[in-house]
Amino acid sequence: MQAQMKELTVTERKMFVMGKISTTIKRTEKTLKRKRKHQENRKRSRITYLVESKQVCRQSFEYMHCISNCQLSGIINHYKTSGVTPPIKKSGGRRFNKAALSESDVRHIVGYISSYADVNGMVIPGKVRGIKCQDPRV
Q1: Above 60 in pLDDT, residue 11?
Q2: Which of 33, 67, 106, 121 could form a disulfide with 137 if both were Cys (CB 3.0 to 4.6 A apart)?
Q3: What is the DSSP string of 22-55?
Q4: What is the DSSP letter of 10?
Q5: Same-domain check for residues 77 and 108
Q6: What is the pLDDT of residues 24-62, one digit of tens each?
Q7: What interhelical angle do 10-24 and 69-82 show, nearest 10?
């Protein structure tokens, strides 16, 4: 099972675990105590962790599904707030960063720095460790 989980992408793995959690979580508002007349409000939701229809502890569930404790807690919190929807990064990742420079801007900046170094740079005499070019400039 672990090999199959490692083949999945991160989003697919999270959705798979979220589906398993959604079938075993108890999200009722009140507790189900038989001996009491009045039921109390539930403080925490109870989750039964199942692997191939056998009940296991949380650590075994995490190990079998190749996720960490923090990831599982995050998946559970996401399920409680949003239901079974794919988790979306809040930052949007590197592609959607509006402050990032375009490729043409990067080329323009590199050209400017290179021309500035040619005009105002000083050549370092001798061999400098870690630099492979013949005339390194500062």
Answers
A1: yes
A2: 121
A3: HHHEE--SB---SS-SSPPBPSS-EE-EEETTEE
A4: H
A5: no
A6: 888 777 777 777 777 888 788 889 999 988 999 999 999
A7: 70
